[in-house]
């Protein structure tokens, strides 16, 4: 039985001649409502998934821009440095927002969001920051040829690196502390 709204309307229109001539409680009207509800549910779930993935895509996009194409494999210290640069990328904007704010005024929503994001990323760095393994040359090549979408990340090898320098392998997509 067809599931998508478009297929259901097409099928009913072929059978009846006009979708508008349906009775409110008929089987075909129920099929249309079910198909429409399913399309809404699928759209809502896919929007939530893409929103959840967006932070990781932006993270990889930052690394894609900041790591040169012909970069040699990095040491752990170099990887920690690039993570610190990533975490502190919004510090100039935070300082500007703080300097523009009058004394005694609460911080703006933008400033609060930037501070919160920086705090979350610092906590993640203490326990294990999820990132591509730049010590592997094949990952650097895959990052250079990455086209910016989620599915393109599946070919890369990922690690979790801590502030102490501990490095452990991770999985894609990131799940908990994998």
From TrEMBL:
An example of a Gene Ontology cellular component annotation for this protein is: nucleus
Q: Extract the ranges annotated as region (Disordered).
A: 96-115
**A Pfam family:** Tma16
* Coiled coil stretches, renumbered: none
The record's InterPro entries line, in alphabetical order, gives: Tma16 (IPR021346), Tma16_sf (IPR038356)
Recorded family membership:
Belongs to the TMA16 family.
- Protein name in UniProt: Translation machinery-associated protein
Question: Which species does the entry assign this protein to?
Answer: Aspergillus piperis CBS 112811
């Amino acid at each position: 039985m067809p599931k998508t709204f478009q297929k259901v309307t097409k099928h009913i229109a072929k059978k009846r001649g006009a979708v508008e001539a349906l009775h409110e409680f008929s089987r075909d009207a129920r099929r249309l409502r079910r198909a429409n509800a399913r399309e809404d549910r699928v759209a809502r779930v896919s929007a939530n998934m893409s929103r959840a993935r967006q932070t990781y895509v932006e993270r990889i996009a930052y690394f894609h821009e900041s790591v040169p194409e012909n970069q040699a494999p990095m040491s752990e210290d170099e990887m920690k440095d690039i993570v610190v640069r990533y975490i502190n990328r919004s510090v100039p904007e935070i300082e500007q927002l703080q300097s523009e704010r009058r004394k005694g005024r609460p911080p703006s929503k933008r400033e609060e969001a930037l501070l919160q994001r920086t705090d979350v990323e610092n906590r993640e760095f203490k326990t294990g920051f999820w990132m591509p393994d730049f010590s592997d040359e094949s990952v650097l090549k895959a990052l250079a040829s990455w086209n910016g979408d989620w599915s393109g990340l599946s070919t890369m090898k990922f690690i979790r690196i801590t502030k102490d320098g501990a490095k452990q392998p991770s999985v894609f997509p990131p799940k908990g502390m994998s």
